[in-house]
Amino acid sequence: MKILQALKKIKHIDRKIKKQADRVAKYCSVILEPGDAPPPYTEEDIRRMLQSITDLLTDKCLIRAALHRTNVNTAVEFQGQKKSIDELLLLQNVFLPIYKNVLASMRRKEKQGAYRNYSKEAKVVLHYSPAERDKHIEEIENVLEELNDILDNANIETDVIGLK
């Protein structure tokens, strides 16, 4: 099974879990008036639904564990170096977005609209180069695009370790 197939299977399992959980929530307790038809599900049916959810969660955990093993143990080429898929995912989803947000937060302060009144002699002092900041943000966006391409290919081509 390829990574992409495993990810799709997890989504499918999640939908099945939600469907069963909604059904359990709806029918685990009902109010019956005298003369009402019996509820559509019995206590045994609810127990079976809960067991089904447990089985689905177990399957999901097994697939997730196999994906983690695969991501840690599979190396791909990135910028001339071999990196694990796990390292690239962390770079893509944690490091680069946070660093990009920090750079984007570097803005010039303005005297107008501030909470205190500044004198006419007050000057705005920049401790960074806006051009350099913008260049770094663009570089990060380019790396993120490269990572997307590499990881998309890895998802399509890489077999999940321990799954058929």
Structure description:
This protein is mostly helical and 164 residues long. It has one domain. Helices cover 63% and strands 5% of the residues. The chain has four helices and two strands; from the N terminus they run ααββαα. The chain has helices spanning 3-27, 43-73, 85-104, 130-157; strands at residues 75-78, 81-84. The protein has a two-stranded antiparallel ribbon. Helix 1 runs antiparallel to helix 2 (43-73) and helix 3 (85-104) runs antiparallel to helix 4 (130-157). The radius of gyration is 27 Å and the shape is flat. The termini are close together.
N-to-C SSE string, H for helix and E for strand: HHEEHH
Mean pLDDT: 93
Number of domains: 1
Rg over C-alpha atoms, rounded to the nearest angstrom: 27 Å
| Largest β sheet strand count, sense and barrel closure | 2 strands, antiparallel
Q: Give the N-to-C terminal Cα separation.
A: 5 Å
Q: Which of globular, elongated, flat, extended, rod-shaped describes the shape?
A: flat
Classification by helices and strands? mainly alpha
The strand line-up of the biggest sheet is 1-2
* Helix-residue proportion: 55-70%
Tally of individual helices: 4
Q: Beta fraction of the residues? A: under 5%
Number of strands: 2
Low-confidence stretches: none
